[in-house]
């Protein structure tokens, strides 16, 4: 790979004798990986091997995730570069935490955080770019996350609505992307020797906003996919010098992981608690991670201890349509408590948190359960993706061959089912829910979203 001359000059000086192997690593194959989705509660993958586990990741494996498969389309797996998986492991939220993924697209960190939270707590995933925020929402939907909100905001506009709100904030910051050179050589086209400093200025603004949203006693995990000290150790040193309440946490590391380099910043020995992943030492594309702890005394949050006393906001018509649908479709009609349901437009959302969305731009203000139409309720793919087969009263099992026809948009005719009445049903391959359909006189009318349909 023909690396930029200024890049090679810079890292020759920084790395010394290690520079040769560092530059040579860019000619090695890209390391690929995927994670199993624990929210799905499915024991075995259909098309992917789990013979090469990643030692530091609870759910990670080396290998290529193939898109046009049952495993991928149903959210059983998520494709993620191995280095990036370590960010989620370091963050490791508690199930009941309020968590913010501030720069979340396309969704790798968000889905990793959700895996630990197991559908509890609150996970707010934000992406400033609208197009990327829609991709984030699609990945959250496929993964089956029930406790999420998808925002499309700038960090500074979030400061007031979420003042000292979050227990954990993850900032996987926009960066100069030097760790992307091997995976995406076009990343070199916009790199120049001053670009890391430009990125560092933007990162400081993002982090200042993030710290205003962090609760006393909370944690902030900062990461980049670049090797630039300006965006890595120097940002961590700036955080410590500008914000007295912060202290670096030691990150557990294996032998192929490097400590941060204090000499590349202000010499503060605390910076050795940060983590570097170099592609000539580590089986991955490269990353920097720092974990900060807010040392202020946590304040007692009375609102968390109180059970919500709010009543359902559904009007009688919406309430009846949802009740009629859920009583026929779900084994437990209280799976989505009515005091956590809200109609926006004609869409019904579930959110187990009190958030004022009046001054926030959002893509999804909760889990989209479906849409109200004239005299009926139509379930969404999001609803199906967050359920387990045992949650359902109405499910129809198809073969893996029929699945190809289903995700292509075809009507499925040759089925075996115990269903006697026409109506909505979940389409499954064995125990895997793959989407919605309407059972009509022995056939499945296809309601797999048109924008997601596949050609083989």
TrEMBL record:
GO terms for molecular function: RNA binding; RNA methyltransferase activity. PROSITE patterns: SAM_MT_RSMB_NOP (PS51686). Keywords: Cytoplasm, Methyltransferase, RNA-binding, S-adenosyl-L-methionine, Transferase. This is Trna and rrna cytosine-c5-methylase. Belongs to the class I-like SAM-binding methyltransferase superfamily. RsmB/NOP family. The active site is at 225 (nucleophile). Residues 1-295 form the SAM-dependent MTase RsmB/NOP-type domain. One of its GO terms (biological process) is RNA methylation. The keyword Cytoplasm applies. The lineage of its organism: Bacteria, Bacillati, Bacillota, Bacilli, Lactobacillales. The keyword Membrane does not apply. It holds the Pfam family RsmF_methylt_CI. S-adenosyl-L-methionine binds at residues 103-109, 127, 172.
């Amino acid at each position: 790979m023909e690396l930029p001359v200024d890049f090679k000059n810079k890292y020759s000086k920084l790395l010394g004798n290690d520079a040769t192997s560092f530059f040579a690593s860019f000619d090695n194959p890209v390391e690929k990986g995927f994670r199993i989705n624990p929210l799905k509660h499915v024991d075995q993958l259909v098309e992917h091997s789990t013979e090469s586990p990643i030692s530091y990741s609870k759910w990670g494996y080396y290998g290529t995730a193939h898109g046009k498969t049952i495993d991928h389309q149903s959210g059983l797996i998520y494709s993620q570069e191995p280095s990036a998986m370590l960010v989620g492991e370091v963050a490791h939220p508690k199930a009941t935490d309020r968590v913010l993924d501030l720069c979340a697209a396309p969704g790798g960190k968000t889905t990793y955080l959700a895996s630990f939270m197991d559908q509890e707590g609150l996970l707010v995933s934000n992406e400033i770019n609208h197009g990327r925020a829609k991709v984030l929402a699609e990945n959250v939907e496929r993964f089956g996350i029930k406790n999420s909100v998808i925002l499309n905001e700038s960090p500074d506009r979030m400061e007031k609505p979420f003042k000292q709100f979050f227990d954990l904030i993850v900032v996987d910051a926009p960066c100069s992307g030097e760790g992307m050179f091997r995976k995406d050589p076009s990343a070199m086209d916009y790199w120049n020797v001053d670009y890391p400093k430009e990125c560092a200025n933007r990162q400081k603004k993002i982090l200042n906003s993030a710290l205003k949203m962090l609760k006393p006693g909370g944690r902030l995990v900062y990461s980049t996919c670049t090797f630039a000290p300006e965006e890595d150790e120097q940002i961590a040193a700036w955080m410590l010098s500008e914000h007295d309440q912060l202290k670096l946490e030691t990150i557990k590391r294996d032998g192929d992981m490097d400590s941060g380099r204090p000499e590349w910043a202000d010499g503060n020995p605390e910076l050795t608690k940060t983590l570097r992943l170099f592609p000539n030492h580590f089986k991955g594309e490269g990353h920097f991670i720092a974990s900060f702890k807010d040392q202020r005394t946590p304040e007692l949050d009375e609102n968390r201890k109180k059970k919500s006393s709010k009543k359902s906001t559904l009007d009688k018509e919406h309430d009846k349509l949802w009740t009629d649908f859920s009583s026929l479709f779900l084994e437990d009609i209280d799976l989505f408590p009515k005091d956590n349901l809200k109609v926006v437009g004609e869409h019904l959302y579930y959110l187990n948190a009190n958030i004022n969305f009046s001054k926030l731009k959002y893509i999804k203000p909760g889990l989209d359960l479906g849409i109200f139409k004239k005299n009926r309720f139509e379930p969404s793919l999001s609803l199906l993706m967050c359920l387990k087969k045992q949650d359902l009263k109405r499910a129809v099992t198809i073969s893996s061959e029929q699945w190809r026809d289903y995700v292509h948009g075809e009507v499925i005719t040759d089925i075996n089912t115990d269903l006697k009445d026409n109506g909505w049903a979940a389409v499954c391959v064995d125990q895997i829910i793959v989407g919605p359909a309407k059972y009509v006189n022995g056939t499945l009318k296809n309601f797999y979203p048109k924008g997601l349909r596949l050609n083989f």
